[in-house]
From TrEMBL:
InterPro entries: TPR-like_helical_dom_sf (IPR011990). It comes from the Bacteria. This is Tetratricopeptide (TPR) repeat protein. SUPFAM superfamilies: TPR-like (SSF48452).
Length: 276
């Protein structure tokens, strides 16, 4: 059964992204490349953080090959044309593109809202669709960061993100990315409103965040994105006392070999973070 707070929020006409504006291309030519055969051969490693079963050979596999190669717009379009099981590809490609590459803030936010709305519609029809729940939570979380965490909490978006991620973990206990995302939610809320208000009002706790981060990394120890989220969480929860450990986590993320285009983007962020 879906969490009671997980209902759709409507897009306004002004939030739609003009179709004539092409998405920004993947900037790194050294990102791994895949085709419909090799993406299935490497599927388990590529999806260790989500535990999603592989698609059958065919157009959907081709779409996933494009996604993992950094062709996010083409992948999203294929997923939308396929519909059904293709929507997770469309949502993932759109959300990852928006988070890492879209430079226009209004378009970025509109893309997150589109993903959240599509995923919420899926959840209404399939309450146990953990993939839709995860991408709903991801998109709402990133949208919330764009408008400020404090404002998002005031609008009630925090309970939607928390409820969706908790439900994903109930349905798919080995979903590493959901553990890390929920940990980051706990840490960000505590950072913004304090431990006492966070616990009493939003049900977040520092010890829960730490346990979730650690379990997420046990499930997917070589995720550069998870390593950086853990580093940021340590600093939000415990401040400068954890700077050395946070730096070590960034160094570990920066030293990894990327499995796909998204990891290539994460590794570049880790390198940039170390140079700041």
């Amino acid at each position: 059964m879906a969490h009671p707070d997980l209902h759709s929020f409507s897009l306004q006409a002004a939030d739609t992204v003009p179709g004539s504006e092409p998405w920004v291309a993947m900037p790194y030519r050294d990102a791994p490349r895949f085709d419909a055969v090799t993406v299935l051969q490497h599927w388990r490693r590529l999806h260790v953080g989500h535990g999603m079963p592989p698609p059958a050979p065919g157009p959907l596999a081709e779409g996933w090959a494009l996604y993992h190669s950094g062709e996010f717009e083409l992948a999203a379009n294929i997923g939308l044309r396929i519909g059904g099981e293709g929507l997770v590809l469309a949502n993932q490609a759109t959300a990852i593109y928006a988070n890492y590459l879209e430079p226009r803030e209004a378009c970025r936010q509109a893309l997150f809202k589109q993903v959240a709305e599509r995923a919420a519609s899926q959840v209404e029809e399939e309450p146990e669709n953990w993939q839709a729940l995860y991408w709903q939570a991801y998109a709402l979380g990133r949208y919330s960061q764009g408008i400020s965490v404090a404002r998002a909490l005031a609008q009630g978006l925090g309970s939607k993100v928390k409820g969706a991620l908790e439900r994903v973990i109930e349905l798919q206990p080995r979903h590493a990315a959901a553990h890390v995302a929920l940990a980051a939610f706990h840490a960000e809320v505590i950072d913004k409103v304090g431990a006492l208000v966070g616990r009493m009002t939003y049900g977040v706790r520092a010890e829960t965040a730490m346990a979730l981060f650690q379990h997420g990394l046990e499930l997917h120890p070589n995720s550069p994105g998870a390593l950086m989220e853990y580093a940021r969480g340590l600093l939000m929860l415990e401040g400068e006392a954890r700077t050395a450990e946070a730096t070590a986590l960034y160094e570990r993320a920066a030293s990894l070999e990327p499995l796909d285009a998204r990891e290539r983007l994460d590794i570049e962020l880790a390198r940039a973070g170390l140079s700041d």
